[in-house]
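Quick one - first record:
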Amino acid sequence: MLSEAMNKPHTFGNPTFLNQMMQELDLFGTIDCAVCCLDSINHLTSKEDVKKAIERVSLFLNDGGVFIFDVNTLYKHKEVLGDNTFVYDTDSTYCVWQNNFDDEDGSVSIFLDFFEKQEDGSFERYEENFSEYFYDDDFLTATLFQNDLKVLEKYDDFSLYEGWVSLIK
C-alpha cells in the first residue's frame, strides 16, 4: 500500500510514508498532521499499545497539529461484522470473508480467503486472518487528553459519531 501511495501524484506537498509499528513511531522531525485510517487503531492488540501509539503521535505533532483517525465501534463489531460471512465475486477474484465476534471483549476475528483467477483459468488461493479489538469512547478520549490532545469532532458516514479529529494543545 505504501508503494502505491508513493507512486501517486501529490498536490498538497511531500507526505512522509513510513512502515513502522504505531506504538514505536519514530519520525525525523515534527509534523502538522497525522492520519491513521482503515481501522488501524482497532488492530492494536491491547489498551497499552493504543496508549503508546497515541503518545508517539502526540510527541511528533506540532502545536496546533491535527491527528485524524477512525475506529470501529462495538456496534459495528457486533451487528455488522458479528458472526457474519460475506462473499464477493468479481471477474478475477472470489473472496469469502468470515467473522467471529467475541462477546467477552467485543473483538472480532476476521478470516479472508481469496481465490485469484490465473491466466490458464485456474485459481490461486490466498488467505489472511486477523482480529480487530474494541476500544470505547471514554478510553480513547481519556488517552487523547493524557497526551495533550483534545477531541474537536467525531463523525461517521451518517450520524456524526465514529471517526475522530484531534488537535494538540
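second record:
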Amino acid sequence: AIVTAVERVAPAVVTVQTETIEQRPVDPFDYFFGRRPQEQRRAGIGSGFIVRDDGVIVTNAHVVAGATSVSVAMRDGTTYSARVVGADEPNDLAVLKIEARGLPTAPVGNSDSLLVGEWVVAIGNPYGFVPGNVEPSVSAGVLSATGRNLVGGNDGGASVDMLQTDAAINPGNSGGPLINAEGQVIGVNSSIYTPSGGSVGLGFAIPINRARRVAEDLLTNGRVRRPWVGITLRTPATNNPRELLTAGVVVRAVVPGSPAARGGLQPGDVLLRAGARTLRNPYDWEAALLDLRPGQDVVVQLRRGSGAQTATLRVADLPEVT
C-alpha cells in the first residue's frame, strides 16, 4: 500500500530552491578606509508539490520568505524559474507558479475524515542535496494526532489545528506532502518539535483542507481573506501550561456593530463550541477561525451565567487597520 501510494504522489513532489541576498556587516573601523557592506548570497531549500498541471505548486511560506529568487527542480532534474503568487505567513503556506504544462499533479484528500493511527507517508527532500540528487525521499509512520495546538515550539511561536505524525520529517521536508495510504495528500509538512535539531518523531503538517482554501485565496486574490467576528478573549492569568489548555474561552469584549454583537454575544460569555469543534482554550478558538470563511454562518454554543445558549454569527472580513 505504501509503495502504491508513493507512486501516485512522488512524481508531483518538487525541490524548492531559493536564494537570499543579505548585506554582510562591515567593522565600523573599516569605514575609515572606504569599505562598505557587501552582498552575501545564501541558498535555501525546501519541498513542494504540484496541484495543477499548468505549474501551480504549494509549499511553506517560510521556505520562500525573503527570497530574491526561487526555482523549482523536478525529480528528473529539470529546473524552472518560479514566481511567488502569494504567501500567507500565519498559515505558513505559499503558492508558486512555473511556466510549464502537462505536469503530474498530486491527488488531494480530505483532512476532515482522518483517523488517528492510520498510516501516513511524508515525501520531500530532507537536508536538500546532501543525499546527492533531487529524487524525493520517503518516510512512513502513523497519524499521531489531529487538531494539535503547538505552543512554544522550536521557533517560540504557536501553530494551531495541526496534524501530528511520527513519520520522520527533517529540515528540507518543509512544504512537501503528507499522504495517506491511498496516495492522497492530507497535509503540508511544516515543522518539527525537537531538542536535537533532527527528527524525534514529533512532526507537524498543515491540514490539506485549510491549505486548499488558502491556495484558492492566494490564486484568486493574491492574499488570504481573514475571518472576523469581532470579539477579544480574556487572557488566562496563569503560566501553568496545563491550566492554560483548560482555561476555557471567555469573551472579554465585543466590538460594537460586529458579527458577534449582531449575534448577541456579551462580555463574560464562555464559548463552548463553534460548529462541530469543542472549545477548551483560546487556541481552540483560533483553530476554529481557520476553518471559517467570510460570508459563512457559524453556530456558537455558549454558557452565560448558569444557562446554555446558541448564537449564529455571520463571519466577516477582518477590518483593515489604517
